[in-house]
Structures are given as structure tokens and as C-alpha cells.
Amino acid sequence: MIDDALLEDTAEDLFEDAPCGYLSTRLDGTIVKVNRTFETWTGLARGELLERRRFQELLAPGGRIYHETHYVPLLRMQGTVRAVAVEIVGADGTRMPALINSVLRHDAAGRPQVIRTTVFDATDRRRYEQELLRAQRREHDIAQQLQRGMLSGELPAAEGLEVDVAYRPGDAGLEVGGDWYDAFWLDDGDTIGLVVGDVVGRGIEAAATMGQLRSAVRALASTGLGPGALVSALDGYARRHAIGRMTTLVYAQLNLATRRLRFVAAGHPPPLIVKPGEDPCFAEDGRSLPLDAHGVSAHAREEAVRELPPRSAILLYTDGLVESRSRLLDDGMDRLRREVAVHRDEAAADLTANVARALHEAERTDDVCLLAARIGVAAR
Amino acid sequence: MTVAERNNVVEHGDRDAQPIVFAHGFGCDQNMWRFVWPAFADDARVILFDHVGAGGSDASAYDRERYASLRGYAEDVLEICRELNLTDVVFVGHSVSAMIGALAAAAEPERFARLVLVGPSPRYIDEGDYSGGFTQQDIEGLLESMDSNYLGWSSAMAPVIMGNDDRPQLGEELVNSFCRADPEIARHFARVTFMSDNRADLAQVRTPSLILQCSDDAIAPRPVGEYVHAQLADSRLVLLEATGHCPNLSAPEETVAAIKAYLAT
Question: Is A209 in contact with A241 (CB distance < 8 Å)?
């Protein structure tokens, strides 16, 4: 049986020992009424508070700024504010995380008079939120380290060869994107392999997929496969291991002795080729579907070939460079061609950096990757 | 996109009269002036706008490099003036926008007739003999405070903030809607605002100015207002009875009267 006396709450009981703190303040924050719960939580007796302290003075400094710049304006404009997180500093200096709600009370003429505030202890909730934030940041750090680790290898260097890359991770919040690049020597010692790819998805999973595909490309390349056969084999790998479905990439092999370029563009924007004395030109052949494309059984990959004159360059990139929310793909590719024409005579490092900067969009959520290789270069 | 669209420019009053540009500070949007601007609409061209990232502005125009200092925001003010072809401008800036206006006036003095600086501070953080009222730690505390507040409502607010909300019923449930902002942008704006140091820029301002200093302003305390007054060549300091940092909301009559009295001189 419930003791009837406990059910007969008086208004005073309800106020004084409510499971939340109650405060009434003047418009400038001066505390004029407070309940026992609030006194207990803060260790501040009403004698120290009433007409002596302003509510905002009890907040930790960061929260005080938030109070002045958000809470007060909202209360004035809306007459009510809900669930704002602050920390209340108690008598002994400890900070109690709290959620506060306020309403503005008006007199008969409609003039605001008093602010009524309820205070809820949010200690556990705040701890949980901080754990979530920490976990989110940790995941981001791990993915970023994974991505950086995979992208930080040395680029091939040789006399007459320039290879460089501009890589900017997207800034869509905490997740890393799925763009990757690679450039490496093949076993014949005369040919370099070049890859730029884009994995579906973001975060740790995308970074791990990138890593596997990158290793697979290198391993397959070391068996002597040309671009068409290599990407077909990569298809099989992706399908067998359920990795990297719908990844797009360009894989190219460039022989420095013969200056022959062979490449495959699997669902990926076309390479841009810059020959001396000619306008930069997109290589629209050698195209096929993304890796392990839905509903398509394994198929041969069409391979394109170019004989490049000395001082030619090839540029591989990801769609983040040419496409964005505010720009259509075609416009972006036109821009890319124009910018490359402007910077074509610069060293590969400057060329990639300057073109990436010129195509930089204010709000770019996607990764941006631009890889350039130039052959037959006289010593600079 | 025009500058007026980017900054959600809203005009009232007499288009042929002297322009008064009202600029909101860190935290909310042009609604901060809702109790003030109507008092000027009868005999002035009233121009309200939102900083990029706040209120009804186009958040996609946000560029971290451009807005890495208050100069980016000052450039926006000048772009608004150019696009609307404004001259002889009275610029009324609250909080951080007071300094944004000062930077704009220093860059193109010929455009501005008067500045009204409501709760200005050229430097929020204490440094040597200078007392701005805050420590570096306090500002970190603000950023944490913003994080914990955005956690609560950012995901629900995101579509509305991004301006492509296809669920109008959300509109009725919106709380805290006047201070909506993209959390990442708000965080960056907070950092830029409270880390900025524009003390040296005050000497470049030649435009006559009025400083409205509140009593007991935790964000811009009285010594800061007096510092601004001492550094600004042709300035007047008026101490308001209003307390807090937002006299435009808490004491609109007193604020209007002080601005009108100044403009009448």
C-alpha cells in the first residue's frame, strides 16, 4: 500500500523537492527564486543567490558566452528556449553538466517580466555524448591514418620523368573519402604504372578497400599483365572477394623508352593528355564499366594506346576535381582543360598544385586527386 | 547567385533615403534587429542581411579560406554595398559585426557616413595589459559548449539548415530556429570571432562612430568599450542602462533612441 500522505503533494513540495532545479530570474538574470533541489545540486544556499547572483554568473565561461549569444536572443525572440546544454559551477567549483529550459513570463500589458528556468542534471548524458564524440573522432583519425599511410609512398623518379600529385581530402565532416592514387615501377625497369581510383563509400571501410585494391593492382602488375588484362583480373578479384564493387579507376602503363602509353578507364573520367604544341585533349577511348559492375558478367576490358612525343604529359584525376554540387561534370571538365592549358609548361608538382587550386570549390565535400606524369623532360 | 541572395538581403523603407545597414553578430541572424529596424523604416532605406552560414544565407557560399578572418565578412559587406549601389551608408553592427563594419569602413571610407558599434570588442582574449575579458581556455570552453548543443539537434536540423528541407511539417517543431546554423560553420565563425585581434585596425577607421556600451556586458565589458572609444578617432561612447550583450533585443527603445540621437547630430 502506498502511504496516502505521500500522494498529497503540496504545491510547495512539488516545487522545492522537484526532480529538477527551478529558478526564476529578472530579465537581467538576477535570481529571485530558487528551489531546494537547485540549492542541493550547486551547494549554493538561497541566501547567497537571491538578489545577489545572476544565473549566467553560475555558468562556466564557455557556456556563459553561449548564453549571451544564443540563449538570451532566442528567449527574447521566441519567448521560450528548450534543452540547451550548459555547465553550472557549484560552490566548490565543480561543474555540473545540465540541460536548461526557459520561458519568458509577461505582465498583463505583454511586457516581459520574469524568466522561469528548469535545470536538469545531464552528467551521465554528457559523458555518453563525449564518448560518442571521442569514438567518432578516433574512427576518423584511424581512417585518415590508413589513407595517409597508403598514399605516402615514394613516386617514381628518373631522368627525364616527372611524376607528381595533388591530393586534398574532402571536408565533409569527420569521414575520409575513397580516392586513391598510386605510381610505381614495373619489373622491366622502363615502365611506370599509374592509377587513380575512387572507391564507393567513406570512412574506415572505404580506406581499407582502397588499400586492398591498391595492393592487388601492384601484385597483378608485377605478373606482367597489360592494362586491359590487369583490370579484367581485378574484376575477378573484386567479385571473388566481394571487395570494391563499383570502384572506378584509370590504370595506365607508360614506357619511358618507347613513350608508349596504354590505359583503361573503368567507369572513370578520361585521362587528359597534353602533347607539345597541341591543345590538351581528353582520351575518350579505352572506356569500360566500373569494377564488378552490377549484373554484368566478367568482360574483356578495352585498352587504348597512344604514342606520345617527348615532353608529353598524362593527367589522371577523380571526379571530385571536376564535379561538385554547384558545377556540372561537363563544365568542370572544360575548366580542367583550360586550367591545364594555362599551367602546361610548369613542372609536374606546380602543374598539379596550381590546377587543383584553380578548380578548388568553396564547398567541396569530395576528395580531390590529380596525378600528372610527364616524359622526355629536359633537366630543369 | 547574386550577393543579395548569398547574404539573404532584405530591404524595408524608402529606397531613395539614406541607407542604414544592420549587421547581426555571432550566434543568430538578422532577426536580432526585429525590434529595432522598424523604427527607421519611415525615413531611411533599411537593409538587413545574414552573414554567410547564418540564417537564410546560402551556406554553400561558405569558404573556410575567405572567412578565416573577419576581413572576409567585411568584404561581404562591401560587396552588398556595391551591388545595391549604396553610398553615404550608416552601418549598425552588433557584437562581432561592429568590428566587421569598422574593417569595411577602413577599406572603403568613401562609402560610409557613420558607424554605430553595439557592444564592440576588437580582442576578446586578455593579452598583457589589455583585458578583453576571456582567456584562451574560455574560448575552448565555448567551442565545447557549441559541440554539446549541436549534438542535441543538429541531425534533426540539418535538412532545414541546408535549405533543402522537403518536410515542411518540421517547421512547426523547430525550436531554437533563429539561431540555426550549419554546426561546422558556426564553430569556425566562433573561432574566427573570438580569436581575432583587430586592435591595430581601429586606428585606420576615419568614419565618425557611435559606441553603444551596455551595463554588465559579459561579452564586451565596459573597459573594452572605453578602449575602442580611445582608439577610434572620431567616436562617441554612450553607456546604455540595458544589461547583457543584446540591447537590440532587451532594450530596443533605448537602443533606437541612442542611435537616432546620434544620427541627428
Answer: no
Other CB atoms within a 10 A radius of the CB of residue A242 amount to 8
Catalytic residue among B29, B50, B95, B229: B95
Alpha helices for A85-122 (secondary structure H): none
Average pLDDT over residues B63-83: 94
Reported in sequence order, the residue ranges of A94-225 that DSSP labels E, i.e. its strands, are: 95-106, 112-121, 162-168, 179-185, 191-198
- Pick from B89-103, B159-173, B187-201, B215-229: least confident: B159-173
- Distance (Å) from the C-alpha of residue A80 to the closest C-alpha of chain B? 8
pLDDT of residue B162: 39
Residue B156 binned pLDDT confidence (cut-offs 50, 70, 90): very low
Answer whether residue B151 shows pLDDT above 60.
Answer: no
- The model's pLDDT over A194-245, given as tens digits with 9 standing for 90+, comes to 999 999 888 888 888 998 999 999 999 999 999 999 999 999 999 999 999 9
- Residue B72 parent element (H or E): helix B70-83
**pLDDT reading at A319 higher than 80:** yes
Q: Over range B32-58, report the average pLDDT.
A: 94
Can you give the pLDDT at residue B95? Answer: 96
pLDDT-derived band at B27, boundaries 50, 70, 90: confident
Best of B37, B179, B188 to substitute, by most chain A Cβ atoms within 10 angstroms, is B179
Provide ipTM, 2 decimals. Answer: 0.86
- Domain at A4-121, CATH class: alpha beta
Q: Which residues in B lie closer than 8 A to residue A132 (C-beta atoms)?
A: 151
Q: What is the mean pLDDT of chain A?
A: 89
B122 DSSP 8-state letter: S
Cell of B181: 546554423
Q: What radius of gyration do chain A's Cα atoms show?
A: 32
> Residue A29 has which C-alpha cell?
538574470
The H or E element containing residue B243 is: strand B235-243
Active site residue B95: yes
Query: Which residue pairs from B8-12 have beta carbons closer than 8 angstroms and sit at least 24 positions apart in sequence?
Result: B8/B49, B8/B50, B8/B55, B8/B56, B8/B57, B8/B58, B9/B47, B9/B48, B9/B49, B9/B80, B9/B84, B10/B47, B10/B48, B10/B49, B11/B45, B11/B46, B11/B47, B11/B48, B11/B84, B12/B37, B12/B38, B12/B41, B12/B46, B12/B48
Look up residue A316 and give its amino acid: L
CA-CA distance, B244 to B225, in Å (whole number)? 14
C-alpha cell at A116: 522561469
State the amino acid at position A246 in one-letter form: M
**Cell of residue B257, nine digits:** 533612441
Residue closest to A120 by CA, chosen among A176, A181, A195, A41: A41
- Per-domain residue ranges for chain A? 4-121, 153-375
Chain A stretch 294-333, residues whose beta carbon is closer than 8 A to a beta carbon of chain B: 325-326
**Which of B24, B145, B187 to mutate to test binding with chain A, by most A CBs within 10 Å of its CB?**
B145
pLDDT of residue B262: 98
- Residue A139 vs residue B66, higher pLDDT: B66
**What H or E segment, with its residue span, contains residue B238?**
strand B235-243
Fold of the A153-375 domain: Phosphatase 2c; domain 1 (3.60.40)
Judge: A68–B245 Cβ closer than 8 Å, yes or no.
yes
Domains A4-121 and A153-375 share a fold: no
Contact at CB, A70 and B179, closer than 8 angstroms: yes
